[in-house]
Structures are given as C-alpha cells and as structure tokens.
C-alpha cells in the first residue's frame, strides 16, 4: 500500500491531491485515511490482566507494566501468577508522578503492592483478577512463520521465546502441520522439517528454569498470545498461540 504525500508542500496531508499531480492516486488524503481507521478494541470490561515488565523498591514493592485487560483501582486485591500469590494495590500511577484513582486497558502503569516482596517477583509474572487467572502452561500449539534460519528446523530444535515480558527457553516438541502458501491449508501429514519462509503449526515445550510460562491464546488476548523466537541473538520466527495444553486440555 502506497500513498503519495509531500509534507514540505502539504500535498495530500489534509486536502486531497489536485488533479494531475499523481493521476494514479484517487484515494483519500493522509488525515482522511487516519480518521477513517477503526479504533483498537480494548478489553476494558474483561477481568484485569497485566504482565509485569519490571520491579523495584520505592517506599515498598513497585512493579510496572501495560494493562492488557480490565481496569484497576487502589485497594483492589489481585493474584500474581504463576505463584498464585494474593496482593493488594496500595498506590498506582500513570505517566505522571501523581496517584490516579483508576487505570484501564492500554495504560502504562506503576503500582505499589502489599503482600509481596521485590525478590519474589520476576519479569513475565502476570497480575490478574481472582475471577479469571491467566493460564500457566508448559506446552502450547502455535502457528509459526520462519523468518530467518541458516539451516533447517526439526523437532528438538531449541530457541528462546519472547512473549509479552516473559523470556523462556523452549523446544519444538513436534512439527504438526505445514501451511500451504496463500491458502494456509494444513498438510495431512506432519512435516519432517521446516525452512526459511515456511509457515507451520508446531507444539512448543518450555524447557527453561521456570518450566512454564503465563500466556493466552492469540484469539482471546492478542498481546498475551503473540511471540517471537530468537536464536544466537537473531529473531528467527514469529508466531501466535492457537491452543493451550493444560491438564484440562484447554
């Protein structure tokens, strides 16, 4: 998608292009196009969920992160996953230094928590509502696009998973399907390998020290279900979680 604009002369910024300047373009101006874009769908009415990006001490235990669902108020009781530890929000801040009474999905926040010590928190932990705990799984299925790989990829290939603020070592437990280019139709038989440019369905297993990771299916919580895979300092693949493998086979 290309749109002709000339910022210095303000062409096609607010008003549409005059005829004859770019005969191939009959579309809207830049501001028209931006005004017509659909607003992001925020999960404001969903139970609260926020991955923890960082932690520190400042008159108590502080954490920061971006709210992915719901709202939070001072005094609320939350559960920190995966340890299922109950904590209380004693203070909360947005982008300013002053406390704010309520924060919602999409906000970048800092919170002071009661009931937990700084050393008991790790990046990748998730604060959530007691009504709806985030899933904590050791295995999941995902649709993966191989971007850059020097060799072929087979079952048993190890790499590093980056999902929201969590970083865990994972392995390809099984290659389940190869997706046909253009149609995304699944292959009937599991592929023996995958290479650069391929799209596959695979079962991933967490093999890092934690042994599990807090995630959700992409269709339920996009930010909690999209990830990148890295190896030797390079991003080798991107993906989205399609199925969580739990005791109840979610």
UniProtKB/TrEMBL annotation:
Signal peptide: none
The entry's keywords: Cytoplasm, GTP-binding, Nucleotide-binding, Phosphoprotein, Protein biosynthesis
Annotated InterPro entries: EFTu-like_2 (IPR004161), GTP-eEF1A_C (IPR054696), Sup35 (IPR003285), TRAFAC_GTPase_members (IPR050100), Transl_B-barrel_sf (IPR009000), Transl_elong_EF1A/Init_IF2_C (IPR009001)
Chief location: cytoplasm
Record GO biological process: nuclear-transcribed mRNA catabolic process, deadenylation-dependent decay
Record's subcellular location: Cytoplasm
GO CC annotation terms, alphabetical: cytoplasm
MF terms (GO), sorted A to Z: GTP binding; GTPase activity; translation release factor activity
Superkingdom of the organism of origin: Eukaryota
Record domain Translation elongation factor EFTu-like: where: 60-128
Domain GTP-eEF1A C-terminal: 139-242
Name of the featured protein: Translation elongation factor EFTu/EF1A C-terminal domain-containing protein
Taxonomic placement: Eukaryota, Metazoa, Ecdysozoa, Arthropoda, Hexapoda
């Amino acid at each position: 998608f290309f749109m002709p604009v000339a910022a210095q002369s303000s062409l096609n910024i607010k008003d549409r292009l005059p005829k004859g300047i770019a005969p191939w373009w009959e579309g809207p101006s830049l501001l028209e196009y931006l005004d017509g874009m659909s607003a992001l769908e925020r999960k404001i009415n969903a139970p609260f969920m926020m991955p923890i990006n960082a932690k520190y001490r400042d008159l108590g235990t502080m954490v920061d992160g971006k709210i992915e669902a719901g709202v939070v108020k001072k005094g609320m009781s939350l559960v920190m996953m995966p340890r299922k530890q109950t904590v209380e929000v004693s203070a909360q801040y947005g982008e300013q230094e002053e406390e704010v009474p309520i924060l919602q999905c999409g906000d970048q926040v800092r919170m002071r928590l009661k009931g937990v010590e700084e050393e008991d928190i790790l990046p990748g932990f998730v604060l959530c509502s007691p009504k709806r705990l985030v899933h904590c799984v050791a295995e999941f299925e995902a649709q993966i696009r191989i971007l850059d790989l020097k060799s072929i990829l087979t079952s048993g290939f190890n790499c590093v998973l980056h999902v929201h603020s969590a970083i865990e070592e994972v392995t390809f437990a099984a290659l389940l399907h190869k997706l046909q280019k253009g149609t995304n139709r699944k292959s009937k038989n599991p592929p023996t390998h995958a290479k650069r440019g391929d799209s596959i369905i695979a079962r991933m297993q967490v093999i890092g020290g934690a042994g599990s990771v807090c995630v959700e299916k992409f269709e339920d919580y996009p930010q909690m279900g999209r990830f990148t895979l890295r190896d030797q300092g390079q991003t080798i693949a991107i993906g989205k979680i399609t199925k969580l493998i739990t005791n109840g086979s979610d």
